[in-house]
């Protein structure tokens, strides 16, 4: 007897056929077995089996033991007719017609009735409508219905497009607390501070009688010192409540005072003078490529070292120094080959303010310097050693130290070093300045010295020497260890060789060790630490006799890799970590205080 095997045959569109059949029964008003009443008592006929198959809510309602299972008419509290009709149409056809006008009503009905497929479609629609114009509304709905993923996407869109998003009607309907939560953030994009002031003012004017009482609190979230003096005068002080409400007028006075005395701004730093930005960038200032440059480039830490051009300095320079203090970038000294002066070594000090993309010239050092070091120590700048003159290819070195005090905009002499020093490297660590190497000749060789200098006491202490003498090298601190990188060794007055050994110094044990060799040569560098990795941007190769554009990262775990390239090969530049505003201001802004003194 033949054995028969059963074969499973499938109708691919069977489900669609059943849905179409139910829709036809519905359209022809056949076999309806329940009447649904909306919150506003609009009635809709339906089929229990299809409702139960489409919704856990109806499945439970029509189960045995529930009173609705025996009733022909069911009143759905909390479900308005517009939402109920849309959900029933979806249940019978699989089609859901959505717009920003009906989204909340339909979504509320879908969630209430637990029609999960309709909820999913609403979420997809919300994501598709996230834009500068609709992001606030989508954000509110996502919060209301606990769609955390959609909320996060809408929130990011608001931050990216805040100037547009905050001009929509939905923004004007936010509470004072919600508005303040936005205005205090550092990551608002495409917005100047004057734009945020205008947004806050417009929100108040939308319902002035009620909202004027929030003006003082709201304006504390606006960083008025980040508004230019001219805009303070013409756009802020002209607003009546900024004059008439004491809390607001005091904030205006604070901003005016900030601009009135630029040399005192270091001591006036607060939450309202903080750069409105979250991105840190490596600022590359000046340097030598084919020619000396005055260009200032910022390479963002995130996003593959994206480059942004900042306001240029008015002087070309290289082998100068730079340091960041109180959110300002200071550049001083250097060599200007294009200068018409006999002495091309600079003494000038400039301060860059990222809040306004603006350079300001400050008091110069008593003498020009190149190949020196600049350190920040307890709110002051220390210029240490260097070359102070070059004549007939001979360099005059110095062991002098000058200290700059921002409050008085002045330089004063400090305790000098015990010997002349140039082309050395320096870092601040635990209340002392560590100085290594340099062009300090002993028997015709560069130095391998390591010493500490205490700016307060003037005490100088010799430490264990490096394994390899070097100059024109770099130095930085990573995880309580001091690293020296690159540089040049010189066996005689005519023979130079690149140093590839990286040495690590333990300040606690006063011990050096060579941790690895660089797979390349670099000198005249300005290394910087990024996320506990040593980053070298550009530099000079004595072997190749040219500058490089490579950005190299070194992990203290002994790993090297190329992280990108500068726009141009360069050496003799400086690298400093600085927080930039999300919107780089126009560099041509007028920073002169309106009707204010410009000096103390």
Overview of the structural elements:
- The protein is of the alpha+beta class and 600 residues long.
- The chain is built from 17 helices and 32 strands.
- The protein folds into three domains: 114 residues, Potassium Channel Kv1.1, Chain A (2-Layer Sandwich); 87 residues, Serine Threonine Protein Phosphatase 5, Tetratricopeptide repeat (Alpha Horseshoe), CATH 1.25.40.420; 300 residues, 6 Propeller (Neuraminidase).
- Strands 27, 28, 29, 30 and 31 form a five-stranded antiparallel sheet that branches. Strands 6-5-4-32 form a four-stranded antiparallel sheet, with no helix packed on it. It has a four-stranded antiparallel sheet with strand order 7-8-9-10, with no helix packed on it.
- A hairpin with a 5-residue loop joins strand 23 and strand 24.
- Helix 4 crosses helix 5, helix 5 packs antiparallel against helix 6 and helix 7 packs antiparallel against helix 8.
- The protein is elongated, with a radius of gyration of 35 Å.
- The C terminus is likely disordered.
Descriptors for this entry?
single chain; 600 residues; alpha+beta; Potassium Channel Kv1.1, Chain A; Serine Threonine Protein Phosphatase 5, Tetratricopeptide repeat; Neuraminidase; 3 domains; five-stranded antiparallel beta sheet; four-stranded antiparallel beta sheet
